[in-house]
Design brief:
Length: 504
């Protein structure tokens, strides 16, 4: 019989979960869970790119390309030539069934004439022919678990070919491993328990499939990896540092992104474009530079030691809150002047939290050395505990506190940028509110931690309140004449050119 008649030079018909697909030489068919496959399934035990059927030097070849296995007659296969009808079980012994059937090309007249006597002879004695090799191995565990398990009247269409014998093909002797029916759950004859364990491990630990999964590109999974490994990386790379501020920088930068994500979800500032990204970067650079040039020198000039008095606390509060508010205000005015863009109130509030986190990270890294020395010089267990708690508060809370105060100021800066008549008053009110809360926090820290908690609770009340009602407050302001009419009281040239001089 010629090659085409044997099915090796023709097409392949695939049947999978109620769908049929005909594949011609030169084409390929991919099977798996990925939606870009030609045959797709949602069975979780099947790999995303489980297998491919392609035309090879020896005819049609089925290749298992995923980490999950494929079984033929109960035996795991990696590559198999499809020169006869096959039933391929994907993923597990109970997985979906892929039927692959070579479709013979139409025989030539001479071949048809020579085949007629053989067909007539086979038709006259079908019982003597015995089971066809096309079906002997085709009955999977689901259909041939024994005489009682055979589905009544079941016959695979087109697979019974009485009298047909592939050239050179011999019926395997009885008892050949993997030939014929196999009861469900029974290990194929000749297979070792080691092979069975290996198959189970590949199913339960599909490492290869995971490594090709696009889910690794999702931000949340990458974030989990980073936050699980970074502390160990810090320990490995920074343990030889001789600067006591190193742990403060490392762990503050570790915690700060979490606070940024939290503030983002609370404030919901809207779309972030290139302008906002550049503004945020400029705010970070300005804050760090201003702290080194101005803020630290002003605080040092107060010569404070021990408990902070109310007046020095107010000076420190205004000094530090102006440091954080000034870059947000400048970013808003520059965008208004040169880009004719007004930052929204929520965006100004969010940029304020970035300035506050930047300030807090720098400050706590500055004070980390003092905290570490206090831990080492502790003369009692209670002193050591207090020093460790102070160090932890610096790392985990210091940046957050500064971000909350700067976010409150940022809300008023946003209102001032958008409603120009009371611009100065709004900005001064916002910075003063944050500065007073900051000063009370520092002033009361030497008296009682519970008073500090009260100040923090008030700060959170204002901050969270503005995150919830910024839109409604802005709407009421826009309907109040005292905010809408009149010229800007701060740099009239900064006024939005698209509005008439009397508009806010």
């Amino acid at each position: 019989m010629d090659m085409d008649a044997a099915g090796q030079g023709g097409t392949i018909r695939l049947s999978f979960e109620g769908r049929e697909l005909t594949v011609h030489p030169g084409q390929t068919a991919r099977i798996g869970r990925n939606p870009d496959n030609e045959l797709v399934t949602d069975v979780p035990t099947v790999s995303r790119q489980h297998a491919v059927l392609r035309w090879g030097p020896g005819g049609w070849e089925f290749e298992n390309t995923g980490s999950a296995p494929t079984f033929v007659n109960g035996q795991q296969v990696t590559r198999v030539t499809v020169d006869r009808p096959l039933a391929l079980v994907l993923g597990s012994a109970d997985g979906p069934l892929l039927r692959a059937e070579p479709v013979a090309s139409a025989p030539s007249p001479a071949a048809a004439a020579s085949a007629a006597p053989a067909a007539a002879q086979a038709a006259a004695a079908p019982a003597a022919a015995g089971p066809s090799p096309w079906t002997a191995g085709y009955e999977s565990a689901a259909f041939a678990a024994g005489a009682g398990d055979q589905q009544p009247g079941y016959q695979q269409p087109g697979y019974q070919q009485p009298g047909y014998q592939q050239p050179g093909y011999q019926q395997p002797p009885a008892g050949t491993p993997g030939w014929g029916a196999m009861p469900p759950g029974r290990m194929p004859a000749g297979a070792s328990s080691g092979d069975d364990i290996g198959t189970a491990l590949r199913i339960l630990f599909p490492i290869q499939s995971w490594m090709h999964d696009k889910g690794w590109r999702q931000g949340l999974r990458l974030l989990v990896i980073a936050y699980a490994l970074l502390p160990l990386i810090f320990l490995a790379t920074l343990s030889s540092s001789t600067r006591l501020s190193t742990p403060g920088w490392a762990y503050s930068l570790y915690v700060a992104p979490l606070w940024i994500m939290g503030f983002w979800m609370l404030i919901r500032p809207g779309r972030v474009g290139k302008q906002e990204i550049w503004a945020a970067g400029g705010i970070v650079v300005w804050t760090l530079a201003w702290m080194n040039v101005v803020t630290i020198n002003v605080n040092d000039a107060l010569h404070i030691s021990g408990k902070i008095g109310l007046v020095p606390a107010l000076v420190i509060g205004f000094n530090e809150e102006i440091t954080k508010a000034l870059p947000v205000l400048l970013a808003g005015l520059i965008l208004l002047r040169y880009r004719h863009v007004k930052l929204t109130v929520p965006m100004c509030m969010f940029l304020g939290t970035i300035a506050g986190l930047t300030f807090g990270i720098f400050e706590q890294a500055f004070y980390t050395s003092t905290d570490i020395i206090g831990i080492n010089q502790a003369r009692s267990v209670s002193e050591a505990v207090n020093a460790v708690l102070a160090f932890s508060e610096r790392i985990f809370v210091d940046g957050f506190q500064h971000a909350v105060w700067a976010g409150i100021a940022g809300f008023f800066i946003g209102m001032g940028l958008n409603y120009s008549r009371r611009r100065v008053q709004l900005i001064v009110l916002g910075v003063a509110t944050a500065a007073i809360l900051h000063a009370l926090n520092d002033f009361l820290a030497g008296d009682s931690i519970w008073l500090v908690i009260v100040v923090q609770a008030v700060s959170l009340l204002l901050f969270l309140g503005y995150t919830m009602s910024a839109a409604s407050i802005e709407q009421r302001v826009s309907q109040t004449p005292m905010f809408r009419h009149g010229d800007s009281m701060l740099l009239p040239v900064m006024q939005d050119p698209g509005q008439p001089p009397s508009a806010g």
